[in-house]
Specification:
With 167 residues, the protein is α+β, with helices and mostly antiparallel strands. The chain has six helices and seven strands. Helix 1 crosses helix 3.
Amino acid sequence: MIMNIRPMELSDIPRKAEIHVFGWRSAYRGIVSDEHLFKNMLVSKDIERFSKDENLYVIKNSFVYDDGIIKAILTIGPCRDEDKPNSFELWGIYVDPFFQRQGVGSQMVEFCEKIAVERGFNEVCIWVLEKNTNARKFYEKLGYNPDGASKLIELLSVTEVRYIKQI
């Protein structure tokens, strides 16, 4: 049951920034360099970045899990991969580390799939850091499987793998 998910509002940007930064630090520590996580990823920088007009498309395609406390953020839209023009994509999902393992993430993914179906898509793609075994297990539990595609994120020296699910 999807109950507490609503479109993101501009006033949610500070909380989005907190969840994004601490989500990265929690999920990617040991995968992405500490220098990037603790020097480059700052809540104040995120607030400034997401408040700029050219980034408002991210806000317009974002949703929050809000049951009185914003616990998670989700950004979705048509797949950005040239080989998947008819697919939907979960661009990013972050659950505040304090609220993980409570069903929030599963509800957010279910919401993404619901929106994809409403928009006429029958496949959802998700890019996951190859070494993020917790996220990979999470998506596999929800029926996603790697399709063999991967890409290197040079800035971070990490590889992402693509997961897909027919819906």
